[in-house]
Design brief:
Helicase, Ruva Protein, domain 3; Beta-Lactamase; Rossmann fold; disordered C terminus; 43% helix; 4 domains; single chain; five-stranded parallel beta sheet; 20 helices
C-alpha cells in the first residue's frame, strides 16, 4: 500500500504543478508527535524528516479541525497562517490542503490530509486544482481507512504498546506477554524516585532496562552512572563508590569523587550488587536510609541526591539467609523489584531480536545490509540460548559478518552455527544416541547436535511420522516440524514412505 500511495501522491503533484506534496494519516487529531503514516514527495530521502517537521502545521491543523479544504494564494500573507513560525521560516506561498474523510457518522474527524505546497509556475492553485485534489482525497479515503485498521490490529497484537507509550523504551525489542509484564512494572516505577532492584539471569537486558527507567523518569536530564560491583577489588570498591579524601589510602594523593557524587541529580546503577563486599554494603545501606554518605577519610557526611537502581543475577534473599548479604540492605533495595525473564520465557521475541541484532551489526560494522533467511530464523528459534539475549546478539553479529564476507544477501543457518554439520542425504541414521562427550564443540553446538540426533532417532523409530515422533518426545507437532527444518534433517532415500521431492510437511 505504501508504494501505491507514494506513486499516487507523485501523480497529483505532477497534475497540479506543485513543488512539494505530503499525505498524512492520523489516528488521533489531538495526538502529538509523528503520525502513524505519512509520505512526502519533492525531497530526498535523507531530508524527509527535516522537511516534514518544516511543513506548516497550522494549515494541516486547520484542515483536520474544520474538515474543509484549505486553499490560499500565499500563506505568508494569509492572516490565518502568517504568524506560524514554519510558514515564515520556509517562505510558504501557495497552499492547498484537503481532508481525507470516509463516509461515517456526522462529526467524525478526517483520517488525514493531502497537502500541496508552492507551484512550479509561481502561481496560485486554481479551482480546478481544488476539485482534482478533493477527488484524489476521496479516492484515498478507503485506503487510509484500511491503513488505520492495520495499525489498530498491530496495536492489539502487541501487548507491550500501552506501556511503551509511558516509557522511552524504543531500544527494547519484543512484544511477548512476558516482556509486557516487565514494561508494565517499569511504567509504574519510572516516574517514582524510589529504589528499584532488577533481577533475572545474566544477559537478559538489566542494564538496558535501568537506562529506560532513568530516561523515563524525573531524573532523565541528570547523569546515568554505572558501576559494576564485581569488576573492582575490595580495596578500591569503596573509594570508587563513595570517593576518598587525600591520604585516605595509598593511591589517594588528591581528593577523589566517587560514583555517588558523579550521579548527583541523576541515577546510580549498581550492577551485580550481590558481589558488593560487607563493608561497602553497610555504607550503601546508610546512603539509602539517610541519603548521606562518608567518603573514605571524611569525618563529615555528604548529602546525596541520587536514585539507586541495582541489578543482580543472584538470589539475594537466599544470600541474606546464608548471611552472605545484609538482610536489611536487601529489603531496602527491593522497594520495587522487577524480574527480567530468560529468553526461553519469551521465545516469541527471539526472531524479532535476531533481526534487530542483524541490522545493528550491519550498521555498526558498515556492512552491506543482510537479512536472516527463513531457515536461519527457524534455527534461531529452535536453539537454546543459555546466555539469553547477549549470547543471541553475539551469534547473530558473527553470522552477519560471515554472510557479508561471502557477499550473500541473507544470513543462513550455516553462518549462525558453523560447527553444525547436518547428516548428508542418504546417510544411514545413527543406531543409538551416544552419551559420550562432544569433544571440540561449544556447549551450544553440542546441545544442538544432541537435539538433532535425538529427533532423528525418534523419527526413524516412528517411520518418519512427525506427529508420532513429536508425541514420543513430548513436543508440539508444529515445533517438531520447525526443528526438522532448523536442523536440516532429511530422510534416507528409498524409505517406504519417503515424501515426494518438493513436498512440504502438512
Amino acid at each position: 500500500m505504501e508504494p501505491f500511495l507514494a506513486e499516487a501522491l507523485a501523480l497529483i503533484v505532477q497534475i497540479t504543478g506543485a513543488l512539494r506534496g505530503y499525505v498524512e494519516i492520523v489516528s488521533d487529531p489531538d495526538a502529538r508527535g509523528e503520525p502513524p503514516f505519512w509520505v512526502a514527495h519533492g525531497c530526498q530521502d535523507k531530508d524527509v524528516a527535516e522537511i516534514r517537521a518544516a511543513f506548516s502545521r497550522g494549515v494541516i491543523a486547520e484542515a483536520l479541525a474544520t474538515g474543509r479544504t484549505i486553499i490560499t494564494v500565499s500563506a505568508l500573507r494569509d492572516p490565518r497562517f502568517r504568524a506560524n513560525e514554519s510558514v515564515e521560516r520556509n517562505r510558504i506561498e501557495a497552499v492547498i490542503c484537503a481532508p481525507i474523510s470516509v463516509r461515517s457518522p456526522a462529526g467524525a474527524p478526517p483520517l488525514g490530509v493531502v497537502y500541496l505546497q508552492n507551484r512550479i509556475e509561481k502561481d496560485r492553485f486554481t479551482e480546478e486544482d481544488r476539485r482534482r485534489v478533493e477527488a484524489f482525497a476521496r479516492h484515498l479515503a478507503p485506503f487510509a481507512d484500511r491503513l488505520m485498521l492495520r495499525f489498530r490490529r498491530r496495536d492489539e497484537a502487541d501487548p507491550t504498546l500501552p506501556f511503551r507509550r509511558a516509557l522511552r523504551a524504543d531500544a527494547i525489542v519484543g512484544k511477548s506477554p512476558a516482556l509486557a509484564l516487565v514494561l508494565s512494572q517499569a511504567a509504574v516505577a519510572a516516574p517514582l524516585d524510589v529504589t528499584v532492584l532488577l533481577t533475572g539471569p545474566s544477559g537478559t537486558g538489566k542494564t538496558q532496562l535501568a537506562r529506560v527507567l532513568h530516561e523515563s523518569g524525573p531524573r532523565a536530564r541528570g547523569p546515568f552512572v554505572e558501576l559494576n560491583c564485581a569488576a573492582l577489588p575490595e580495596t578500591l570498591l569503596e573509594s570508587e563508590l563513595f570517593g576518598a579524601l587525600p591520604g585516605a589510602h595509598s593511591t589517594a594523593s588528591r581528593k577523589m569523587d566517587g560514583k555517588v557524587a558523579a550521579a548527583d541529580k541523576g541515577t546510580l546503577f549498581l550492577d551485580e550488587i550481590g558481589e558488593l563486599k560487607p563493608s561497602a554494603q553497610a555504607k550503601l545501606l546508610q546512603l539509602l536510609q539517610s541519603r548521606e554518605y562518608y567518603p573514605l577519610g571524611a569525618t563529615r557526611p555528604v548529602r546525596a541526591d541520587v536514585r539507586v537502581i541495582a541489578a543482580t543475577n543472584v538470589d539475594l534473599k537466599a544470600a541474606a539467609q546464608r548471611k552472605e548479604f545484609r538482610e536489611d540492605l536487601f529489603y531496602r533495595l527491593q522497594v520495587l523489584p522487577i524480574r527480567l525473564p530468560a529468553l526461553s520465557e519469551r521465545r516469541e521475541d527471539i526472531a524479532l531480536l535476531a533481526e534487530h541484532f542483524c541490522a545493528e551489526a550491519c550498521k555498526t560494522h558498515g556492512l552491506p545490509a543482510v537479512h536472516l533467511s527463513v531457515d536461519a530464523l527457524c534455527a534461531v528459534e529452535a536453539a537454546e540460548w543459555s546466555g539469553n539475549a547477549r549470547e543471541l546478539a553475539h551469534a547473530v553479529e558473527a553470522a552477519a559478518i560471515r554472510a557479508a564476507a561471502q557477499g550473500v544477501p541473507q544470513v543462513e543457518r550455516r553462518h549462525l552455527f558453523p560447527g553444525d554439520i547436518a547428516a548428508p542425504e542418504g546417510a544411514a541414521a545413527a543406531p543409538a544416541i551416544t552419551t559420550a562427550p562432544y569433544r571440540g564443540l561449544t556447549f551450544q553446538e553440542a546441545t544442538r547436535r544432541f537435539q538433532a540426533e535425538l529427533l532423528r532417532a525418534a523419527l526413524e523409530e516412528c517411520g518418519w511420522n512427525v506427529g508420532e515422533a513429536a508425541s514420543k518426545l513430548d513436543l508440539a507437532r508444529s515445533h517438531a516440524y520447525k526443528l526438522v527444518r532448523a536442523f536440516g534433517l532429511t530422510r534416507r532415500r528409498g524409505g517406504p514412505d519417503e515424501p515426494r521431492p518438493g513436498a512440504k510437511p502438512p
